[in-house]
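Instructor's aside before we start: the two examples that follow are unrelated to each other. I chose them only because their records fit on one page, so don't look for a connection. First example below.
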Amino acid sequence: MMNKLPIALCSVLAASMVHAAEPRHVVFSHFDWELVCDNTGTCRAAGPNTPVEAELQVASADEAPARVAMRIDGKPLGDVSLNKAGGKLNIAQTSALLAAVRKDSDIQWTSGKQRWVLSSTGASAVLLKMDEYQGRIGTPGALVRKGTKAEAAVPMPTPVPVLKAARVTGDDVDQGLLSKKQRRDLLAELRRTLVDKDGLLCPDFDENAQDPNKPDLRRLSRQQLLVSLTCWTAAYNSADAYWVVNATPPYSPVLVTTNGNEYAGGVITAYQRGRGLGDCTNTDSWTWDGSKFQHTESAISELCKGFPGGAWRMPSLTVKVIR
């Protein structure tokens, strides 16, 4: 039995780009490998010159084994203990793995008759991209393109942004907040926020707007409401659009997202699957700060590797929310 084995190398501490012209995050994939660096400069692939952790998960038709034996090019490297969250490689195993994925090595884990093989195709490009993003190319701590440039030139990590979440009045839908006529007037204003040069951003808006009980209304504060309406549906995904509006005319709607799925406690969340199995996903959240919803989380996993729900959480936006 042979399965491709997704694996993530995670840095405990990583450096961020400091130049304003540089992107605030990076999502990059090459063949069988993927890199996501968030707004703090932390990259889920590796973090040179800091403790590098390699985490392992296996996809098995049966219950995952409690222990697998690691071998690179036929050389035994000891066992890796697994639980529901996966397992961590030790320092020697991690070092051997980092060297092996940069060349055409036979990397595998076994348990009895089961065997899982890790593809190294794309690893060098992904690790080089991480070195580039973190400003490590040419330093001794680089994973791929090492050099003698001083490590002091590597930018320090960016602190995680902090957002103080505000209290909301309630979570429940309350259609009594506006009369039917007021909702019709509101829908006309909402629609205008969705029109761009390519047409309507929400294909299902007009159909759902015909429901006399729509849109859904929730109170955020005395002055502001949260409004939602089904925006689009697809084969295995659907989403609502969310707006913040004034409680009285003019409603002046501000569109938060057209990809929302749930709302609770001042947080809008989105979860979209790349395919029906749900082994590659996009997730986002927006948190109410008292005047608007701030984007506080974004994570992506583009490679569909057979793990329902995704093998790894790969953030591209990280914010510490204080309640």
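Example two begins here.
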Amino acid sequence: MPGPRVPHDLHVVSTETLTPHLTRVWFGGDGFDAIAARSHTDAYVKLVFLQPGDADPIRRTYTIQRVDDENRLFAIDFVIHGDEGVAGPWAANAEPGDRLPMMGPGGGYTPSADADFHLLIGDETALPAISAALRAMPDGARGAVYAETGDVADELALPLPEGFEVHWVRRIGDDHSQLRDAVLDAPWPDGMVQVFAHGEAEVTMRQLRPYLRKERGIPAALASISGYWRHGRSEEAFRTWKRDLATEDAAAPVG
């Protein structure tokens, strides 16, 4: 469930370029206490971007990548595609001292100690949550990561525990995902499987969710499956698309 809608003041402490399309921004400020109290590994916040001459701020949702409790800092990774969008260009030009309001955090996924196998699936936008999940895995956990990027240069060194393996999947062009095929072609693990699958909505919600939930029978309690974004849509239009999809699913016959 989302955290209380209380705005927190953040300021940029430092930035670092991780890949040609990924920039990490470290934040400090009074929002740290809310982040430190998070209860889920996929903790996310809504960053509020104030546009000059526009009375309505723009909110964008991002997952917390890392938390530095000792120095009271936390990091968010931003996917950068030139001047496209609002948050990416902001992050590309962010400097220490820049300020930004934050709402949240929220979240809904935590690795289960009871699962026999953890299946983590996503594109660049899901890598922060996947990284956080890998750091939080219980002792002796086993699993696999299927991570999609558009270029080999965008592959990150993930904090893989012993017992995990990563499979990098290459997207063809801007919108031809290979994630579904990679997951369906892989041997299905034995035992109780917990799934985290997030990223582009058409891939996660239309292509992967039916396979994971219906064909493989993953129960809702062990399936965190949703879209972070959708090709050709702003976050505002994407929220409308998700509401429409939920209505469509509710009206669909069972069985």
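Residues 25 and 229 are 20 Å apart (CA to CA).
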